[in-house]
Backbone:
């Protein structure tokens, strides 16, 4: 029999070899180094090209909150612009105007606005470090940031925070009122414009886009004359656009309406009867909202994604048609609204009629036919109604309607029942609720600064 | 891509260094001088037993018996030696012999068969061990015996209802994944699948394929041909799985393939022929047609419209497309298997070679109406349209064992599988679902709100939006070529020391292909413009094990067994994917699309571990084991160095102690307890901050951009699960009954949770070790040989388990109200709003006002989605001198919930709603229909408890003389088997509570739900085994 000490020595030797083999740092490092292909890590973000790639990544997020994504279409669904023809129940929540803060689409749209802000922030930091010139790159990121903040305040209730990431750590923001967010957005657009000093075509276009964005923010803040000043000089033909190609993605409006058939063009009536306050986008025959199909009867386009709702398809944009993020048309509408608020009803009407007589292109493939001029409204109230109707048709599908309906309440003293859709909702036979704004996502609860209110909402209030 | 050859070479160098070290240590050795030989036979039948491990106790000398049951061990030290035998399914036996120099002494054994005997041998991380030595429960299946009697098609069938604590959910479609969960769910964010070890090496078992995003997802675990399997052990929890290292916390399925036996070649052939018959009662579609008071226009009505007087009923229709021969997709399926095996060899070289071919066609086919329409239009009917669910598999295996010297033997195992399978788009298919077309329709062929004509102008016959034939035009296939090879070296440099090394390589090349030809297939969006996707995935598992075990007799009554080992595992998945849309007419490849995209990635994960185990056996009745394993992994965060998993166990044959009172009916009693820890590693890139690239179109230019995809977590570490288990094993009534009782409690700390980040930060959440989950439960099994006479036998096995599962901590994260993972509630909890109703006027119809639904804030806990209770009963009666065996297996699962989306979705999203469109619907059904019309879906969370008669089998061994005369064989057995025989549901009114969408998915954050899934069919199989 082998002596016990020999056995122990042998086992200890084997154990020592094993331990030694696994204890060798270099060997371990070699054995455990995993070459992960296709994953970009922070080590690669150390040059101008990478900084510019971050800028492009932020533009991707910008696309998602404008014409390529669903933020515009869902905010419009909460108004009279669209009706759901969707098999998904969540779309019905938007349509009837009672969107829970747990709704996945609401959460996605809420988050996507912040993604655009966060990506532009990261790009600004990288561009300042690795690619400060041309300056329009950084300015473009400020514009993206300001635009996202503007939409955040236009769509969502009071109480949205603006969180930042400082040295890699998340610093959660505190609830802000819409007015505070508009103010911050305006400041960021100012920062953008300060960087648009060059005279090249890119910078000039960005400057015009920034001016219109600033004008829109000022309108949101009720500073109408300042808004008109901001957009002065922007050509009516100007357009700052989301562009599309088959390989990179589709026009978001075309996709959700014409392709996926989830939304159908809104109308002033449906199977349940008249929808109070709703504009007849589908049935009016207005050249600015070119459509195919009918709300009632048998629609030649058939039914929507739910198999039961008549589909009315818009014909302004095709699959790869560019869509205006901001345009000279917007500038003119801002000027018209400034005239309205200056009690210059004739001036307002004149601007609107100029647009009607010589309509700007709404897409690369569609320019409405000229329309008969409008008469000057007899009162400010009628003028306001006329203006917002005109604006709704001019800006159909571009995510401005929810903010405008809120402004009708906030700035023009209209009641909720006089602005948002009312009556029986065709899908459930319940009454339209049409809350004046969208709630803060329930996922924001992770932010220690937001508080769940008595109405199970993280909004500080639901005021328009 | 992957890891370089030079790095692999370094890994081998390490292994060689260790071998060299052991060699040096063992340089001083005593050479034995005698031999032992003999024969091992079955005590009952006297037949030789092949494959018995015969070993000299206290040494590493040993061999395996040949085909005639004989063995011979050379080079045994002279003197008194104890010879032990071990074979799965038999009681281990011992004999003491005196070995003299240059002489061979004889030691014959007659072994007693034992289904779950304490003396039975099981495979562990450190090699084969007797069950009595282990402090934990291990369940085993002698697969070769089970398959010979009952046809099984994959691992899931093998394990289904066989072991307490092991829950298998069967897939409905051929090639689908079986979801296997062992002792509940521990992970909230990671998969809860067990890992697989085949012949000592890690095996890819992930579910991946075309079904992603909806539909059936194949599993790589199904690639293994059951015909090649000798035995399966299921290591249930961390208390037993510690030495398998990080990733083993959810259990380990240890597969041992068949080996050759010494002796003349033995040829065995088997064939199966059978039918798949889908006898499930899928839901019909209904309508109520009426008109408004004072109006004449006909409209669809719901029962509540009639109750409320807003609709005056004209007629009611029912259309069951499943039962109509013209419209049904249900066709007889078929299964064919033919295979052969040959094994044999000498004491020096043994071999096992097998080949199998099988083809299974699922019971889904092109409806007659579609066939007629395609024929009339001249549309080519391709095989995938005619039979969209098909699997063809070729399996080859060659296992060779070579005894190079009495001290050194080498085993080489190689398995090759070629698999082709295709699936119809079903369930929540991302393109379309043929099941939804069958069940979402209006209840008539034309009528209000339904023109009967689809988007492409095709007649719909009552299908929802398109015909199944259009769905079947969509091609979804998977082709896999897989090689699993391993080599094991056993070296016994000294009679007390054994060194074992394994190297294994598992590579599966998986090709997932989808095709919708231009102008064909499901309508919707741009679908008819065509699309083609081709994703090629290479799964690689490289395993290297090296270990040494020393055994010595400290005292005559005390034996010490020491094992040290190291393991290096590389798991990688390399994916290249191409997709093209807007195909040219006739185009079938991604490159023939107008819009073309390609992606590629390589995600390796590497683990380096080592372990030490000490086992002390006192008087061969009391066993203490302590062990520790250390792991490092490439997926851990940079701030986390490594992890240690300890283990300790005690096993005590109490009945062997002198103080234990003699009891007439209790022959043996063992008590055991064990503690151990193991983990589950995070995904390969979860710890890293990563950016994703995407092409952005802006200003009419397409440019690649970067954005953060994962914030990363440098402190990321594996989930750690520790478990305590205790139990007793008793042998009763003279060995006629075996009883096992086990209690376990396992706590998962550091459970990975997706750390939520408020959306206002603009970045996504990241994985963090924040959670805690607790599982506790009992497992029991009683096997009894009630009658064991020469002409008649009757055995019964009753087994069951109960698992209590709850989330202990979410690390301070405030879960959304009624989230499926909430502190104090099970992982995957179902909640529901309270529904009350009263039919005030007793007209059998509920108006909306007669139904009250609690608010969203007022919900009640209904139960876990994972059923906590499982019971199975199997029994067999043997007649005619045990030639005929009649057996049955039934199991019950209870206490779980399932979201009945099969009936809910039509009400929510489609024109048809059976719950509200049949006049005889029970009030409770009408009430939930009214609720779902108001967007309240949780009322469809139903009790999924069911009992299933899973299989019945008649198996007959033909007379040997007859076999010799007719077939020139030595034995033959014929079996007739029916699987999925009958189902009894408690209250679930969907088709089958076992058919769950995404059956491989975990329920931590998702509900078990039947989203128009195809339910398991009945298999009627005839099998013939012939041995030559």
Residues:
């Amino acid at each position: 029999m082998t002596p016990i000490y020999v056995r122990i020595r042998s086992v200890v030797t084997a154990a020592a070899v094993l331990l030694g083999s696994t204890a060798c740092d270099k060997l371990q490092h070699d054995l455990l180094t995993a070459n992960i292909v296709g994953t970009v890590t922070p080590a690669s973000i150390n040059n101008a090209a990478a900084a510019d790639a971050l800028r492009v990544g932020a533009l991707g997020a910008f696309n998602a909150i404008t014409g390529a994504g669903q933020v515009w279409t869902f905010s419009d669904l909460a108004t009279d612009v669209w009706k759901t023809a969707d098999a998904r129940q969540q779309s019905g929540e938007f349509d009837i105007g009672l969107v829970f803060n747990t709704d996945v689409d609401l959460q996605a749209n809420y988050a996507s606005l912040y993604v655009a802000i966060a990506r532009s922030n990261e790009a600004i930091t990288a561009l300042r470090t690795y690619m400060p010139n041309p300056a329009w790159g950084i300015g473009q990121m400020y514009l993206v940031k300001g635009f996202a903040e503007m939409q955040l305040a236009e769509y969502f209730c009071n109480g949205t925070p603006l969180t930042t990431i400082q040295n890699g750590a998340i610093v959660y923001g505190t609830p802000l009122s819409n007015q505070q967010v508009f103010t911050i957005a305006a400041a960021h657009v100012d920062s953008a414009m300060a960087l648009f000093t060059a005279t090249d075509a890119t910078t000039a276009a960005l400057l015009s886009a920034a001016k219109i964005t600033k004008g829109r923010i000022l309108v949101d803040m009720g500073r109408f004359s300042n808004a008109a000043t901001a957009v002065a000089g922007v050509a009516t033909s100007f357009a700052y656009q989301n562009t599309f190609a088959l390989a990179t993605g589709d026009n978001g409006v075309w996709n959700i309406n014409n392709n996926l058939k989830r939304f159908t063009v809104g109308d002033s009536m449906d199977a349940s009867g008249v929808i109070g306050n709703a504009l007849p986008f589908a049935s009016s025959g207005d050249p600015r909202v070119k459509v195919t199909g009918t709300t009632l009867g048998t629609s030649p386009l058939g039914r929507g994604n739910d198999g039961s709702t008549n589909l009315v398809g818009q014909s302004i944009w095709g699959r790869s048609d560019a869509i205006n993020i901001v345009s000279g048309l917007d500038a003119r509408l801002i000027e018209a609204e400034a005239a309205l608020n200056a009690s210059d009803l004739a001036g307002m009407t004149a601007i609107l009629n100029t647009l009607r007589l010589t309509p700007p292109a709404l897409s690369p493939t569609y320019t409405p036919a000229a329309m008969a001029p409008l008469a000057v409204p007899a009162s400010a109230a009628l003028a306001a109604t006329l203006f917002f109707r005109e604006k709704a048709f001019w800006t159909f599908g571009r995510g401005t309607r929810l903010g405008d309906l809120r402004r009708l309440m906030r700035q023009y003293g209209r009641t909720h029942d006089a602005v948002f859709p009312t009556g029986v909702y065709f899908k459930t036979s319940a009454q339209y609720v049409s809350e004046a704004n969208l709630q803060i996502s329930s996922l924001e609860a992770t932010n220690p600064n937001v508080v769940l209110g008595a109405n199970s909402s993280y909004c500080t209030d639901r005021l328009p | 891509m992957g890891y370089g050859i030079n790095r692999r070479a370094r890994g081998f160098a390490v292994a060689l260094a260790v071998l060299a070290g052991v060699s040096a240590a063992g340089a001083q050795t005593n050479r034995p001088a005698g031999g032992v030989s003999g024969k091992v036979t079955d005590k009952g039948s006297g037949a030789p037993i092949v494959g018995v491990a015969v070993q000299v106790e206290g040494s590493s000398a040993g061999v395996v018996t040949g085909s005639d049951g004989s063995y011979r061990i050379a080079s045994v030290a002279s003197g008194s030696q104890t010879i032990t035998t071990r074979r799965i399914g038999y009681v281990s036996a011992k004999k003491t012999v005196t070995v003299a120099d240059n002489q061979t002494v004889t030691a014959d054994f007659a072994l007693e068969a034992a289904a779950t005997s304490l003396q039975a041998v099981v495979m562990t991380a450190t090699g084969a061990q007797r069950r009595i030595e282990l402090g934990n429960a291990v369940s085993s299946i002698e697969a070769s015996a089970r398959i010979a009697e009952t046809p099984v098609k994959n691992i899931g069938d093998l394990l289904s209802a066989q072991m307490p604590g092991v829950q298998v959910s069967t897939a409905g479609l051929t090639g689908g994944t079986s979801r296997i969960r062992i002792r509940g769910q521990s992970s909230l964010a990671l998969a809860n699948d067990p890992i697989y070890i085949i012949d000592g090496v890690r095996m890819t078992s992930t579910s991946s394929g075309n079904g992603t995003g909806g539909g059936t997802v194949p599993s790589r675990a199904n690639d293994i041909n059951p015909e090649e399997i000798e035995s399966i052990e299921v290591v249930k929890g961390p208390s037993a799985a510690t030495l398998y290292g990080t990733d083993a916390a959810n259990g380990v399925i240890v597969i041992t393939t068949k080996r050759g036996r010494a002796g003349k070649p033995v040829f065995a052939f088997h064939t199966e022929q059978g039918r798949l018959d889908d006898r499930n009662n899928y839901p019909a579609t209904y309508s109520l047609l009426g008109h408004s008071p004072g109006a004449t226009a006909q409209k669809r009505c719901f029962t509540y419209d009639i109750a409320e007087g807003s609709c005056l009923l004209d007629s009611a229709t029912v259309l069951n497309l499943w039962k109509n021969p013209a419209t049904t997709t249900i066709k007889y399926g078929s299964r064919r298997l033919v295979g052969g095996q040959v094994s044999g060899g000498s004491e020096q070289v043994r071999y096992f070679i097998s080949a199998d071919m099988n083809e299974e066609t699922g019971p889904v086919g092109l409806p007659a109406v579609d066939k007629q329409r395609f024929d009339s239009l001249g549309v080519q009917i391709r095989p995938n349209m005619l039979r969209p669910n098909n699997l063809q598999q070729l399996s080859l295996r060659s296992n060779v064992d070579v005894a190079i010297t009495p001290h050194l033997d080498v085993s080489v195992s190689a398995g090759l599988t070629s698999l082709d399978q295709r699936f119809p788009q079903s369930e929540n298919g991302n393109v379309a679902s043929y099941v939804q077309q069958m069940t979402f329709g209006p209840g008539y062929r034309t009528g209000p709100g339904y023109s009967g004509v689809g988007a492409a102008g095709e007649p719909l016959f009552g299908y929802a939006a398109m015909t199944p034939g259009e769905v079947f035009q969509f091609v979804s296939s998977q082709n896999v070529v897989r090689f699993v090879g391993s080599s094991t070296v056993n070296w016994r440099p000294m009679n007390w020391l054994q060194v074992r090394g394994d190297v294994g390589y598992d590579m599966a090349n998986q090709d997932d292909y989808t095709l919708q030809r231009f102008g064909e297939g499901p309508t919707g969006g741009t679908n008819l413009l065509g699309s083609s996707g081709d994703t090629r995935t290479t799964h690689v598992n490289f395993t290297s094990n090296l270990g040494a075990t020393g055994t010595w007799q400290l005292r005559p009554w005390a034996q010490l067994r020491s094992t040290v080992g190291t393991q290096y595992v590389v798991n990688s998945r390399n994916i290249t994917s191409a997709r093209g849309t807007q195909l040219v007419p006739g185009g079938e490849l991604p490159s023939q699309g107008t819009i073309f995209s390609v992606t590629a990635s390589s995600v390796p994960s590497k683990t380096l571990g080592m372990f030490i185990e000490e086992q002390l056996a006192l008087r061969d009745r009391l066993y203490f084991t302590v062990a520790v394993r250390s792991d490092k992994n490439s997926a851990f965060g940079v701030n986390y160095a490594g992890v240690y998993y300890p283990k300790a166990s005690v096993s005590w044959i109490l009945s062997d102690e002198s103080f234990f009172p003699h009891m007439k009916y209790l022959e043996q009693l063992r008590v055991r307890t064990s503690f151990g820890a193991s983990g589950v590693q995070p995904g390969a890139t979860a710890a890293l901050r990563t950016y994703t690239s995407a092409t952005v179109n802006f200003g009419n230019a397409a440019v690649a951009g970067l954005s953060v995809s994962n914030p990363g977590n440098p402190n990321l570490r594996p989930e750690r699960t520790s478990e305590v288990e205790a139990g007793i094993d008793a042998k009763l009534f003279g060995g006629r009954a075996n009883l096992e009782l086990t209690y376990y409690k396992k706590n998962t700390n550091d459970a990975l949770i997706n750390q939520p980040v408020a959306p206002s930060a603009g970045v996504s959440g990241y994985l963090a070790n924040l959670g805690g989950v607790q599982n506790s439960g009992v497992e029991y099994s009683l096997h009894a040989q009630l009658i064991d006479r020469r002409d008649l036998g009757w055995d019964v096995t009753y087994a069951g388990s109960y698992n209590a599962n709850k989330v202990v901590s979410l690390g301070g994260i405030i879960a959304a109200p009624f989230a499926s993972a909430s502190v104090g509630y099970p992982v995957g909890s179902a909640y529901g709003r309270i529904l009350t109703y009263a039919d005030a006027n007793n007209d059998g119809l509920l108006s909306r006002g007669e139904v009250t639904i609690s608010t969203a804030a007022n919900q009640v806990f209904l139960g876990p989605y994972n059923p906590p209770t499982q019971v199975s009963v199997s029994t067999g009666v043997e007649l005619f001198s045990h030639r005929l065996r009649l057996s049955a297996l039934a199991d019950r699962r209870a206490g779980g919930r399932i979201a009945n989306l099969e009936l809910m979705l039509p009400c929510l999203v489609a024109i048809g709603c059976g719950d509200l469109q049949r006049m005889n619907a029970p009030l409770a059904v009408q009430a939930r229909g009214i609720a779902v019309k108001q967007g309240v879906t949780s009322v469809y969370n139903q009790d999924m408890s069911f009992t299933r008669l899973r299989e019945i089998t008649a198996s007959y061994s033909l007379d040997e003389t007859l076999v010799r005369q007719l077939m020139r064989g030595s034995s033959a057995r014929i079996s007739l088997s029916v699987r999925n025989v009958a189902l009894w549901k408690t209250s679930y009114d969907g088709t089958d509570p076992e058919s769950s969408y995404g059956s491989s998915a975990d329920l931590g954050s998702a509900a078990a739900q039947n989203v128009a899934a195809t339910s398991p069919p009945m298999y009627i199989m005839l099998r013939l085994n012939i041995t030559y």
Summary: Residues 85 and 342 of chain A are 41 Å apart (CA to CA). Residues 104-130 of chain A form the longest helix (27 residues). The first strand of chain A starts at residue 82 and ends at 84.
